[in-house]
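Run log // design_07
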């Protein structure tokens, strides 16, 4: 019996990037997916450019790669949470990975990773590309090192109560949890934030085990993003949604303004100490990036 897997693409105005994203899926299927039934779901959140047209044209030429193809075209902008959950709602496989249409996959065997992950939350670093600064890369290095340290000490829950330390593109989630009625009802209460409530649900509600790997599987594009159009975009709605998360799980509130937040300074200090002590992540990331680039 063939193993099944689904790629889910979340898009909003990604016409310039979507071919790179799709071609990276094609490489993985051709390299590792010959004995698998690979499905594809494309969920577009009312793009105003030619994203949907480009994807349909590509699918016409590459339809043979997939056992099934499903397309969601929202007529109005529904927000990243609803777009994601609509895609998961029509996904018929337990194993899947969702990714923004501006990011792309590396050449490491994602199918084996998902097989090995089982019911665990598998966290990997990402390879940056696009427009980014050294400051952003250093921050990502420090975050990953801090997360690795916290996991070794069994302190990830406490850390997540202060700061969202997970980088969503590099996280591989046991798909079954995101299809549970309890989770679907919970996550659809949100409009702006999809990852933060997801992590808290998995950690506090399901007590999912975490595995951290330094092998990268995802290229993350800086200077773009899957974020959708928000006419009412402001900081206040994000604060309100975070409060909803903390209230549900009866967590302490650390939502002081950033400049006077003592917990933010504590986290930054801890990040720096760990990063200096274990200054290996950036070197390994650069090495892995070079390996991936050479393979491609």
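design_07 sequence
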């Amino acid at each position: 019996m063939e193993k099944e897997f689904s790629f889910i693409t979340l898009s909003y105005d990604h016409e310039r990037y979507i071919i790179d994203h799709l071609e990276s899926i094609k490489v993985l299927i051709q390299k590792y997916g010959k004995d698998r039934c690979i499905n594809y779901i494309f969920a577009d959140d009312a793009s105003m450019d030619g994203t949907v047209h480009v994807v349909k044209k590509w699918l016409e030429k590459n339809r043979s790669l997939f056992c099934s193809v499903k397309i969601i075209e929202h007529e109005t902008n529904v927000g990243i949470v609803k777009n994601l959950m609509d895609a998961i709602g029509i996904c018929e496989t337990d194993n899947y990975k969702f990714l923004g249409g501006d990011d792309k996959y590396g050449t490491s065997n994602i199918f084996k990773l998902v097989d090995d992950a089982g019911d665990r939350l598998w966290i990997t670093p990402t390879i940056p590309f696009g427009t980014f600064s050294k400051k952003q890369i250093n921050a990502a290095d420090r975050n990953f090192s801090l997360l690795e340290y916290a996991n070794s000490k069994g302190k990830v829950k406490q850390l997540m109560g202060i700061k969202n330390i997970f980088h969503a593109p590099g996280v591989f989630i046991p798909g079954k949890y995101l299809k549970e009625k309890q989770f679907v009802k919970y996550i659809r209460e949100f409009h702006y934030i999809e990852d933060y409530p997801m992590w808290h649900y998995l950690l506090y509600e399901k007590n999912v085990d975490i595995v951290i790997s330094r092998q990268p599987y995802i290229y993350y594009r800086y200077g773009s993003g899957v974020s959708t159009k928000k006419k009412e975009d402001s900081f206040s709605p994000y604060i309100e949604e975070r409060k909803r998360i903390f209230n549900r799980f009866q967590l302490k509130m650390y939502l002081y303004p950033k400049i006077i937040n003592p917990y933010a300074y504590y986290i930054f200090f801890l990040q720096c100490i760990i990063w200096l002590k274990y200054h290996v992540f950036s070197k390994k990331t650069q090495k892995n990036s070079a390996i991936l680039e050479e393979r491609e």
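The chain has one domain: 3-295.
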